[in-house]
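Incident log entry.

Two folding requests arrived from the same account within the same minute. Monitoring flagged them as a possible duplicate submission, but the sequences differ. Recording both here for audit purposes.

Request one:
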Amino acid sequence: MPNSFLCLAIQLIVATTCCAQSTSSSVHRIFAGNGKQVRNSVAYRRGSPTGPAANLAIGNPFGIEFSEDDIWITSVDDHCIYRGKTNGQHLHRVAGNGLPGYTGDGGPAEDATFNWPHEVRADTDGDLYIADTRNHVVRHVDHASGIITTLAGNGQPGLSGDRKHGSEIQFNQPHSVVLDGQGGLLVADTGNHRICRIDLASGLLQTICGTGEKKLPIDGGSSLNSNLAGPRSLAVDEDFIWIALREGNSIWRIHRKTNTIHHVAGTGKKGYTGDNGPPQDATFKGPKGLVLDDLGRILVVDTENHAVRRIDMSRNRVDTVLGGNKSKATFPLKRPHGIAYKKGFGYLVADSEHHRVLLGN
């Protein structure tokens, strides 16, 4: 009888251990894109492309956004924005006609042209804000009417904007936009090495970080007087604005109350080191996307290392969770870019040059 109890105890221990390993293991799958590149010579027909997300050709996906159960994806091969649901059963084009250009303001977004739309954000009304990078503008799509307009920028690269609005503003390849939750839109003006805020009520722009010099910031310094080296991606929470510096190969954050900037991860040198250790000692190579999960961990798209890495500040640790040195256990990536996270669903990452979007937990 004692031996029976012992065997039962061992079986329970083994079952519990296996269950815990299964629950904590990383699971990834293809969510959207059939892996095919897109090259258009004529505009798309109205109402196309459309279909199950995993069956569509999503050429070079970059930006990804969640809004309730909606998912938005930008693609730079055909210069479009797509909309779908978390179930992946349907994806359809909502902006961009498939050709490069800068046309369509005042008309339906589906007929407009973009030039490498890198990122899209949706507000609570369903309005879209798009970083139209190679047109050097930020554009807006009204959810109710579907009409597209230019919110800021005049289509020419430059450096102009403080206390200005609309076409008086000039950007130099804005890559990232994010709503700040306080009536403003933050813009990563990458080529000008600055971060700006557009007040959505007045349209006025104000620089909040960056002197224009391509240098790393000083930890703890004033955000307005700090240098930036290619701010490429932004995220916000209640306390901080999070920044991925492409040329700076590092992650920083601005404290929203003290307006000071602080070092989070990366030495500033190019490399792929530091997993399982302190984030500030790690090296990255051209990070181009970041998002926070519901536990406050930072997911970083380490683009030129073809990896997604996770920073856990509570444990003072960085790890690779997708691609990179975990490619065999997950998926190989090829120059990934955008990333978005939804509690209870997981994260979507744009595996850009494999022309697909992956779902991870």
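Request two (distinct sequence, not a duplicate):
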Amino acid sequence: MENFNYTDFTLQWHITHRCNLRCKHCYQEDYSAFESSEKINDILEQFCNLLKAYNCRGRLNITGGEPLTHPYLFELLRLAWSKGIKTGVLTNGTLIGEWEARRFRACHVDYVQVSLDGMEKVHDEIRGKGSFEKAVNGIYALKSQGIFTSISFTAQNNNYKELKKLSAFCSYIGADKLWFDRVIIPSEEDTEQLTLSTEIFWKLCKTASHLNKRGRVFCGRALQFIPCKNKLVYHCSAGENLLIVLANGDVMPCRRIPLVIGNIKENDLLTLHKTSPIMNELRAVGIPQGCISCKYASLCRGGSKCVSYAKKGRFDIPDPDCILLHKQKND
């Protein structure tokens, strides 16, 4: 195990593909897959075996679909906590009331992430009428129980101008953290042209840098550190200390890189992580050639592989939205 020197390892687990919403940018195609409680116990045990083999801490991020549509969610959270694994829940927030928030607290959940894609009008256009009000009520319920509540904003062409207003709103309602990332859609599938151009993404990063100085936006995703001069430089973990398990058993290196490395019903997590050709290829990428001369090269290591793959069909090249790369080409 000398080649796998991890201090922590994250499993993002889509325990169900069922969802009560149909968001415009969603990459979910199947809304039927649903893990049984018996299979869930087996997968959690496999994750524990992986953590033991690598002698590292574990983090379990549970999502869907919409995870609150699964009746075993809270039992899984309690079981993971009993095994010393930190847990987070990624949700649209619309199914959270006082009772659910109390159960999250009882399960010792580390944090809950709620998606908001703008203020009410824009958010509802993307996620469905009434979803904003329900999500905000869910946030209030979480905060009433003292649960760390993170807000996720997916920036796309129809909502990126909302970040400034949303940051003020999130501060007003007492959210603990607001962060944003780019929508990731393969170029050939982006029929509605939701993907941000490099120029717009750079402008958004500059807006975020001003908001970051006021403590309103966390700039910790790929390339956001450049205008923010953030000491926290993002390093893509696809192929390393991250695995995704879908509700049909498929395993992926990253949910936003559409490559399946196997199925948990045929091979265990540890075997797939160690021996998958795709995982080995991702680990072997290193620093892309175009980034070697950059002062951030050893920390950033090329930005987000999923963006490179979505826009260029390769994950062994620099993030195409990197403004430093564009300046370098123009010099």
